[in-house]
Specification:
alpha/beta; 544 residues; single chain; globular; eight-stranded mixed β-sheet; Nitrilase/N-carbamoyl-D-aminoacid amidohydrolase; 14 strands; six-stranded mixed β-sheet; 15% strand
């Protein structure tokens, strides 16, 4: 097969992956998406002398680059340079995964099938991509079913990595069926027949999780006591209004919306990320006009608590270690402070609880590898709130409310991390409130994808979710992952819903991303073994 034909196959994989992605994608295409790329690998490994040394790398890279661009093109709306970097880096990492598999197959398995190596390497990559300075798990394969909660009720046991494993297994079995048909292998209804046996296993691996999920979905009942929540979507344009309009004026607009749905039965009102733009010093909350206005508002209703995003600053104590996010006062050398992206709870008694965003957006709220890139920190992308490296909370905090409910705020980017969100639940959260500001990418797939991922977190933890987006989509999500009472994009709105608290921990919450951890350790050992054997092979060839 000619190189341009292999390139077309790689492009086909990229297109299928993009077409499968939510919200408007056809998710079932993901079960076939890797077949063309697997075929490319098979052709090249069986004909090593026909293709150049780096042919496989560049051919596969093109396919992954197409997938990244077509799926996350919306990053361009906020930063051209950041978008190009994200496309290239993510495509490169995915390409390396397939090349590690190709290399291991060649030096360890002597060209024999070793699909388990590909699965290990890919899941290890996704797990690693969850927790490093350039973390970008947006395209974790298990996320593709975010719009199909009926299919993935078993995520409460596996998380999204279980979806990744499922996807690869189906692709591999379909690929083996394809090879059997291509090679014109005989077919008979006999378990010794490869085609028949592979087909049966493929159907079982595909159908059993779906049947289990549909049964679970239909039988599942909401657990816990009821609370009433009002979510406000203020729709403040982040490019023009948010940092120009006086903070109290924006707050009054939100309160007017809230009052259209709030009465004495409402337990919580939720405002979005960075809703309060007063830049409050945390040592002086009592002097904040915005905070005091919220206190006055809560006193109108007997059991109300308001949760809102706010930009805050914290003064480091003189004996406190200098944190990576610390900034020195220009007029007071030797004194430091931090900027923070904060979620604030103000209850009926006027008490304040706060949580600081801890999974920071690379290049926006956190300068990756700061020692290397510190000179360009001032060029951080402005996507809401304070930019540059921010302070964080080490603990996944739970707000203990006056009515006995325990809830946790999840701020924007944090909501795409299943294992991270599960830590809030493990610490006692009975409800999850997501606050975000999704207007930076315009009316594109970006805010819709982000919105859809909330369903994954609901299923994994079996927690009801309230989601307040400034200019995105606000909604409620029940414990089955169903979207309830969603708003339209770019419209100010207030919505109200009864939610159920739940204190039971799912298997996934208890044990976290165990699939990712197993893959990471196993994949590392296999890759190390591959490099050792590769070096021995090179030395042997030199001696010959």
């Amino acid at each position: 097969m000619k190189k341009y034909q292999l390139l077309l196959l790689s492009l086909l994989s990229g297109l299928l992956l993009a077409l499968a992605w939510p919200l408007n994608g056809i998710s079932y295409l993901i079960f076939f998406a890797f077949i063309p790329m697997l075929w490319v690998e098979e052709i090249i490994i069986q004909n090593p002398l026909k293709y150049g040394k780096f042919s496989f790398f560049f051919i596969v890279f093109i396919g992954f680059f197409v997938w990244n661009v077509l799926t996350t093109y919306w990053i361009w709306n906020s930063t051209e340079a950041g978008a190009v970097f994200a496309f290239l880096l993510n495509s490169l990492l995915m390409t390396m995964v397939f090349n590690f598999y190709h290399y291991s197959r060649r030096v360890v398995f002597r060209k024999n099938k070793a699909y388990f190596a590909l699965v290990l390497y890919w899941i290890a990559f996704e797990y690693f991509h969850m927790d490093w300075d350039f973390s970008w798990p947006w395209l974790t394969l298990g996320n593709v079913f975010a719009n199909n909660p009926k299919l993935i009720q078993w995520y409460e046991y596996t998380g999204a990595f279980g979806g990744t494993l499922w996807i690869f297994l189906i692709n591999i079995f379909f690929f083996e069926i394809f090879l059997s048909i291509k090679n014109k292998e005989s077919f008979s209804f006999n378990l010794k027949n490869k085609f028949f046996k592979t087909s049966i296993i493929c159907v079982l691996v595909l159908v059993i999780p779906i049947v289990f999920s549909v049964i679970t979905y239909n039988r599942y009942e909401e657990k816990g006591t009821e609370v009433e929540v009002v979510v406000v979507q203020p729709n403040v344009d982040p490019y023009t209004e948010q940092y120009i309009t006086p903070p109290l004026e924006i707050l009054q607009q939100m309160l007017v919306l809230a009052e259209t749905k709030t009465d004495s039965n409402v337990d919580f009102v939720l405002f979005p990320e960075s809703a309060l733009q007063e830049n409050v010093w945390e040592e002086k909350f009592d002097f904040s006009q915005s905070v005091n206005v919220l206190r006055c508002f809560t006193k109108k209703f007997p059991k109300l608590a308001v949760i809102s995003g706010i930009s805050t600053q914290r003064l480091l104590k003189e004996d406190e270690p200098i944190t990576p996010a610390a900034r020195e006062f220009s007029d007071d050398k030797g004194r430091y402070y931090e900027h923070l992206n904060t979620a604030l709870l103000v209850d009926h008694s006027g008490n304040i609880q706060r949580y600081h965003k801890s999974k920071l957006t690379p290049g926006v709220e956190k300068m990756p590898f700061k020692k290397i890139f510190k000179p360009i920190e001032k060029l951080a992308i402005d996507l809401g709130g304070t930019v540059g490296s921010l302070g964080v909370d080490i603990e996944r905090k739970v707000f203990n409310c006056q009515n006995g409910v325990k809830l946790s705020p999840v701020i924007c980017y944090e909501s795409i991390y299943g294992g991270f969100v599960s830590e809030f639940v493990k610490n006692g959260a009975e409800l999850i409130f997501i606050i975000t500001n999704d207007g930076w990418w315009g009316n594109t797939a970006g805010h819709r994808q982000h919105f859809s991922y909330a369903a994954l977190r609901a299923i994994e933890s079996r927690r009801d979710i309230a989601r307040s987006a400034n200019t995105g989509i606000s909604c409620f999500v029940n414990q089955r992952g169903d979207i309830l009472n969603r708003t339209d994009y770019w419209e100010p709105a207030a919505i109200r819903q009864k939610l159920h608290t739940n204190s039971k921990l799912t298997f996934y919450v208890k044990y976290g991303d165990y699939i990712g951890k197993i893959a990471l350790y196993s994949g590392f050992i296999l890759l190390l073994l591959s490099f050792i054997m590769g070096i021995k092979l090179i030395n042997r060839n030199k001696m010959d």
